[in-house]
Amino acid sequence: MASEPTGPKSGTPKSGTSGLTPKQQAEQARAEAEASERRRERMIRIVGGLAVLLVVGGLLAVGFFAGQDKDSGTSVTAPPTADPDAASPKGVSSDTYGVKYGTGWTSADEAKLPTLEMWEDFQCPACKALEEAAGADIMALADAGKVKLLYRPTTFLDNSLASANQAAGNPNSSARATSAWGCAVDAGRTGPYHSTIFANQPSQEGDGYSDQQLIEFGTAAGVPEAETDAFTKCVQDGTYLAWSANSYQAFLEAGVSGTPSANLNGVEISNSDLADIAILTQKIEAATAK
C-alpha cells in the first residue's frame, strides 16, 4: 500500500517562527497544517486512481480485440481504422499524432524547453484521477512556457469496454471522444475541452459518451458561437476518428503499458510525481537546457 505524505518529522524545527507571538505561531502552524492536508488529499486522489490503473494494466495485458466481444458474444461496432493519410486537428503532425499545448511550442526558448508527453484514454478512471489532482497545474506550467506539453491520446479501452459501450448505445466512446476533442482543438478550445471530458466521465465505467454529450461539452468548454455549427458537424461526422486510430496505433508501437503514462524528454515519470506539482516543477527545471 502506498504511504501517505506526512508532515515534518518529530524534532524538525519549523521555519519562520522566530520572533512571532504565540498567537502568530499558532496561526502559522494552522496554515501549515491546512496546506499539508490539501497535499495529503491530493495524493489520496491520485493513489486511488493508480489502484484503477492496475486494473487498466490488466485489461491491456489480456490483449486487444475488435468487432466481436469475446466474453458476451455480442456483436459490436467495429473501431475506426488507422489511416496515415487521414486528416488531423490543427497543429497535429504525423510524427506523433499528439496535441501540442502551451506557449512553449512557439516560445523563443522552445529549443531549451523539455517536452512532457502524456498518454491518456478519455474512458480511463485513473486518467480522470490524475486530471483532478494535477491537470490544471500541469496546464498552468505549459501556459507559462515552462514546458512543452504534448497530449498523446489513446483508445485502448474501446476494446476492453466494447460490449458495455455498445449496450449503452455509445460504441467506441474513447475514439469518438478523441475525435470530438480534435474538433475542439480546431475551435481553439484544446485545454478546456480536454478538462470537460474528464470532468464528465461517466461514474459507471463502460457507459461511455454519446455524440450529444460530446457536442454539449463544446458549449461547456467555451467553443465560440461562430464555431458552433462547424464544431457540431465535425463531431457528428466523426471527422477525426481515423486520427484517433492513428494515435492508438502509435500507442501500440510505443509499447506503453497503460494509462495515464508520462515521460519528460523521454524519461518516464511516475504518476505520483506527476501529481505532485512541486516535484514535477523540479524535474522540469532540471531538464531545461541552460
The sequence of SSEs as H and E is HEEHEHHHHHHHEEHH
**Name of the CATH architecture:** 3-Layer(aba) Sandwich
Protein structure class: alpha+beta
What is the overall pLDDT average?
A: 84
What gross morphology would you assign? globular
The name of the CATH topology is Glutaredoxin
Question: How far from one another are the termini?
Answer: 39 Å
Low-confidence stretches: 1-17, 51-72
Strand order of the largest sheet: 1-3-2-4-5
Percent of residues in helical segments? Answer: 40-55%
Q: Care to count the β-strands?
A: 5
Q: What's the CATH superfamily, by name?
A: Glutaredoxin
List the helices and strands and how they pair.
Blueprint: H1 22-61, E1 99-101, E2 115-120, H2 125-143, E3 148-153, H3 157-160, H4 162-167, H5 173-186, H6 190-199, H7 211-220, H8 228-237, H9 241-254, E4 261-264, E5 267-269, H10 271-275, H11 277-287
Parallel strand pairs: 2-3
Antiparallel strand pairs: 1-3, 2-4, 4-5
Helix pairs in contact: 1-2, 2-6, 5-6, 5-7, 5-8, 5-9, 6-7, 7-8
Brief summary:
The protein is an alpha+beta fold and about 290 residues long.
Word description of this protein:
The protein has 290 residues and is an alpha+beta fold. It has a single domain, classed as Glutaredoxin. 49% of the residues lie in helices and 8% in strands. The protein is built from 11 helices and 5 strands; from the N terminus they run H-E-E-H-E-H-H-H-H-H-H-H-E-E-H-H. Strands 1-3-2-4-5 form a 5-stranded mixed sheet, sandwiched between helices. The protein is globular. The N terminus is likely disordered.
